[in-house]
Amino acid sequence: MIDRALIGAALPAHDEIVDRSRLRRFAEAIGETDPVYVDVASARAAGHPDLPVPPTFLFCLEMDDPGAFAFQAELGIDTGRVRHGEQTFEYHAMAHAGDRLHIASLISDVYSREQRQLDFIVKSTRITRDDELIATMRNVIVILGEDR
């Protein structure tokens, strides 16, 4: 069972600069066909200063931190038992290519189910640009028990 004392623990924060070529590759990978996500002229014609960040791309930036999963190792969690449970996004402002985004996460909840055979860690993340809130994300990590 994961210790509930972890609730509120801050994870190391990091900054990422949104790369235009990476946005284009992401748009292609998800099958996005709107030219506003791949063509700067189209983006500007639509009122954006540069290519806008597509939904869910922010999760990629969170994962860019080399220590994104370090807290799991520090807790002695067997990564072979870790599953992605849920991911939610709430957007507050648009981000664009060239923006420097600050990504800060904390453990917002810890709980168990099925007679402690499933542990859950809820990680909440705030993404800001110059103190302006861009998005909040919530990620539920599931840890399977020994008998799973």
TrEMBL record:
| InterPro entries attached to this UniProt entry | FAS1-like_DH_region, HadA-like, HotDog_dom_sf
Query: Residue limits of the FAS1-like dehydratase domain?
Result: 5-137
Q: Where are the transmembrane segments?
A: none
- This protein's name: FAS1-like dehydratase domain-containing protein
Could you tell me which species this protein originates from?
Sinosporangium siamense
